[in-house]
Write a structure and sequence with these properties.
- It contains 8 helices and no strands.
- The protein is mainly alpha-helical and 252 residues long.
- The longest helix is centred in the C-terminal third of the chain and has 33 residues, at 211-243.
- The N and C termini lie far apart (81 Å).
């Protein structure tokens, strides 16, 4: 005789399914070993040589204390170091430099180029890093140094970022930190001018930061506008980095 079937059957436990894989915040570069990239290594080495050459040429044309006080020369030194390290890492198949460092170097190089070509390239009297009162003649040393630091090197840094650097490496949180160096340079520039004689021709290196000609109020207003433009450029680079395709291929 069979037992009666109970009216209330307890719920059976659910059959376990495959585990749900959640997206991990770990980047692919943390688990995938980098490969040698000789093309990137050679291009970055050439960029570093060009930046170092431009800085060296300026140092030969003027006094080192004055030349090293220019934003573009300091940026050239920074870009030389960043490109040398990036070249060595690409050649030895090591992980790239942090994007905060390479992004800052790119931003400062583009800032130097835009400021020169939009604000300084056609001023009267002509802008000169050596204090010359006449425009530099084409293909002469001073003209070549200006073009290397403000055209050739920034263009090479931009091409390296577009063609040889993986996308989606820049972050919006980095943009505020990138403004610390321009702010420090403004402080350095005004402090340096305060310790130089009023008649010194190299007291103010950039006409828009000349507090004697414009007053501190207008000078700080110019600096604020320039700072906002630099921040906008930084945000634009991050936005482009999020939308552009990754151009990197094995061996490139």
């Amino acid at each position: 005789m069979t037992a009666p079937i109970p009216r209330d059957i307890p719920d059976l436990p659910a059959v376990p399914g495959p585990p749900l894989l959640l997206p991990a915040p770990v980047p692919a570069t943390a688990v995938v070993a980098p490969v040698r990239r000789p093309v990137a290594a050679v291009f970055r080495l050439l960029t570093a040589v060009a930046a170092a050459g431009g800085v060296a040429l300026e140092l030969l044309l003027g006094t080192p204390a004055r030349m090293l006080s220019y934003f573009s020369v300091q940026t050239g030194v920074l870009l030389t170091l960043v490109m040398l390290l990036s070249s060595a890492r690409a050649w030895r198949a090591r992980r790239p430099l942090p994007s905060a460092v390479t992004g800052a170097a790119l931003l400062y190089a583009l800032t130097s180029a835009l400021v020169y070509h939009l604000l300084l390239g056609h001023t009267t009297p002509p802008f000169s890093m050596t204090g010359a009162t006449t425009p530099p003649e084409r293909w002469h040393a001073q003209w070549a140094a200006l073009q290397i630091l403000h055209t050739l090197v920034p263009a090479a840094a931009l091409l390296d970022w577009l063609l040889l650097t993986p996308a989606t490496r820049l972050h919006l949180r980095q943009t505020a930190a990138w403004l610390l160096y321009p702010l420090a340079y403004l402080t350095f520039s005004l402090t340096r001018a305060a310790f130089l004689p009023p008649a010194s021709p190299s007291r103010y290196l950039y006409p828009f930061l000349d507090a004697t000609a414009h007053g501190y109020r207008s000078t700080l207003a110019n600096a604020l506008l320039l700072g906002l433009a630099i921040y906008a450029l930084a945000v634009l680079l991050v936005a482009l980095d999020r939308t552009r395709p990754t151009p990197v291929r094995h061996g490139a």
